[in-house]
């Protein structure tokens, strides 16, 4: 079993598709309340890993625990304990802001009293109170992004998976978004984030870089830049993953 | 005098009552690599589609390589290459079949076709993959193939709408290297991106937000528009320190960046002294150069 303050614990996790090894014996731990950046080129194995950690795909071998639940046996428990937000914000554009929240409340099986309480908290926290009756399709992208985050944390999950959460959003909204993420982490939510954008990687407490199914390095952005003697995480990434033609 | 590849004056485009592009003006010199930088909804795509003659507009003037967009669009279409955000490659055709298809579409003569095809395959590093179906390519390779298809009729002006969105950093860097090569050959390039850091790769950038251009200049000059100063603070107590910083008189804004805090202020020395005097847990303070994103945020406000 995992220790109390370990939120995600991955041990020799492997996934093969036929002859192709998408994820190759990876090991790492994410602590509770940590902002953990999960980097890699397209096809490195990030999505496969996340799908296994979210209980959507079984590994070929190895194990992982998410909030203490084993991905091989307890995938239903895992789904209740994680929030997931992707770049493509799965929101209903023809519903109002409030109706979208209600819809997700139904999916997560919240009681009507706890839905009411969580909804008010989220609308206030994300500064969406004045927009509650607005049609989702008509609000600016930065607000949609906040709403998508709100829906992902409606059931108060201890672990939040963010898949390229801020693509295309204006820079002020983006900074406000990261301020919220920092606040959630401060309150103990573990943040697991993938991004292609290296300036976002700099906001993480710790980063891993995945390449051809393996985790090739893992540390804080500051330590990685010192260790590889590079000015930016992008330069670290390029020097490690290389310029070879990839499949 | 250098010729202008693009000249836009007081362009206005509305969708119903909503202005998508409100009264913008800019020019691109021949051979320039010009970036349109801004978030989604800024008006980048609308501007590009107008320049390609794909969209009408309310008022203003647009010239592309001295042809008028409204009256001489047929001339323009022969000499521009437009790569939209979702470029339509044929997924069940191979790399070289896609290129041949676009060669036919743009009426490239059979005599020129093979030579150009080989040149583009080399240039995009897609030669080893020419028999691979387009749907079997990685995201970065698809973008390179789309660019190659856009180049098949050797356009003088390339208009690329967010070619690097969703592409990993290595493929992005490779894509920009290809753009530099094209620039060397004299091609004028108009490229849009939502990513502020890519502004630094352009000769000139126009920063767009909500249909307006906030600033146009070289990336270096744009950074100079940032009038405040930026301090980077390192501390082990991020949240406490950032809350304390917000209370200080000379501090204008406070932002946590991973394991550091950024503070904007008008008075550097005074602020540093104040932080040293009032906040004990600060490991280091230094003045840093603002990024393009810092400048963009200041211009937005």
Provide a descriptive summary of the structure in words.
The complex is a heterodimer of chains A (about 250) and B (about 300). Chain A has about 250 residues and is α/β, with parallel strands linked by helices. Chain A has two domains: about 1-70 and about 160-170 and about 180-240, P-loop containing nucleotide triphosphate hydrolases (Rossmann fold, 3-Layer(aba) Sandwich), CATH 3.40.50.300; about 90-155, no CATH class. Chain A has helices spanning about 45-55, 75-80, 95-105, 110-125, 140-150, 170-185, 200, 220-225, 235-240; strands at about 5-15, 20-30, 35-40, 60-65, 70, 80-85, 160-165, 190-195, 205-210, 215-220. Chain A has a six-stranded mixed sheet with strand order 6-7-8-3-9-10. A four-stranded antiparallel sheet of chain A has the order 2-1-4-5, with helices on one face. In chain A, a hairpin with a 2-residue loop joins β9 and β10. In chain A, α3 packs parallel to α5 (about 140-150). Chain A starts with 5 loop residues before the first strand and ends in a 6-residue tail after the last helix. The mean pLDDT of chain A is about 90. In chain B, a hairpin with a 2-residue loop joins β12 and β13. Chain B folds into two domains: about 5-225, Rossmann fold (3-Layer(aba) Sandwich), CATH 3.40.50; about 230-300, ACT domain (Alpha-Beta Plaits). Chain B is globular and about 75 Å long. Chain B has about 300 residues and is an alpha/beta fold. Chain B contains ten helices and 14 strands. In chain B, α3 runs parallel beside α5. The two termini of chain B are about 35 Å apart. A six-stranded mixed sheet of chain B has the order 6-7-8-3-9-10, with helices on both faces. The mean pLDDT of chain B is about 90. The chains are: A alpha/beta (about 250), B alpha/beta (about 300). The interface of A and B includes residues 40, 41, 43, 205 and 245 of A.
